């Protein structure tokens, strides 16, 4: 009987395909049902993320546009009312003096990290030494009067304001001195303006004051629309990172004297906040992060963020931009870690 059972079992191959087919059918049905639910949830999730993206993008863009306009207006005025002889009289061509003078120029021009880029590019065109321009580019977003007042309003006229200005000044001067080693600016700078723009604005030298202002506004419009498109790209990248990378994951690992500084440096790049208002955002981190990590956020953020890097690439070649990002990053990291270890 056992032998007969085995023969009958092996002689009926149809039982296995039926069970296999039934399993496949059940599996397919389960996949269909499960796929219908996540698809609806996915579209809801995507719609919510797109709303967040649009909100963050508009916030960054609207915040930055007035200062970009201010910087391009200053660029237009520099182009029309300043010549290279005046620049040579005001700024020394000796590397150390030029770097220090360029850094303190930030006290005069009320421009943030968006507006300082087109202004620096125009100053290079007017004969500003390389070390002075680099120092001005990095120092102006922190040392300008608007940022000084906003930082004082958030933290008071105390240690945070003084250390922010002091460390930013040191970093700007050091980076300017490093770039002064290069004797040929064409190895670092891209062409400042295309020939078509130069011909358009210099075909007829303006004589009356009204004509000069008209010429300055034309330069302002050209600069604004040229640099504005890169501001849009940078704002979109920053908004995308803020939307799809949860900040809670960064803040959760932000403990320890070194890791907290690294997290705040990453947040500075991620948020890409204008330097005129970043002090109020940093104030909200004081209960969670140490003094050194918040200070590194306030120092590094105005020098390097997503939108400013995109704009840097329109003034400098790629390798110099790498140095413009890496050197301030390392110096800000060092400053924050030292404060975390040695501040009582």
How are the secondary structure elements laid out?
Elements: H1 2-10, H2 15-81, H3 84-90, H4 95-104, H5 116-125, H6 130-143, H7 145-155, H8 159-179, H9 195-202, H10 209-244, H11 247-252, H12 259-271, H13 278-283, H14 291-303, H15 306-312, H16 318-342
Helix pairs in contact: 2-5, 2-10, 4-6, 4-8, 5-6, 6-8, 6-14, 7-8, 8-14, 8-16, 10-15, 12-14, 14-16
Describe this structure in words.
There is one protein chain. The chain is an all-alpha fold and 344 residues long. The chain has helices spanning 2-10, 15-81, 84-90, 95-104, 116-125, 130-143, 145-155, 159-179, 195-202, 209-244, 247-252, 259-271, 278-283, 291-303, 306-312, 318-342. Helix 14 runs antiparallel to helix 16 (318-342). The longest helix has 67 residues, at 15-81. Mean pLDDT is 80; it is low at 1-5, 7-16 and 193-203.
Shape descriptor reads globular
Identify low-pLDDT runs: 1-5, 7-16, 193-203
DSSP summary: helix tally: 16
Estimate the mean pLDDT confidence: 80
Largest β sheet strand count, sense and barrel closure: none
Give me some keywords for this one.
344 residues, mainly alpha, 76% helix, globular, disordered N terminus
Overview in brief:
76% of the residues lie in helices and 0% in strands. With 344 residues, the chain is mainly alpha-helical. Mean pLDDT is 80; it is low at 1-5, 7-16 and 193-203.
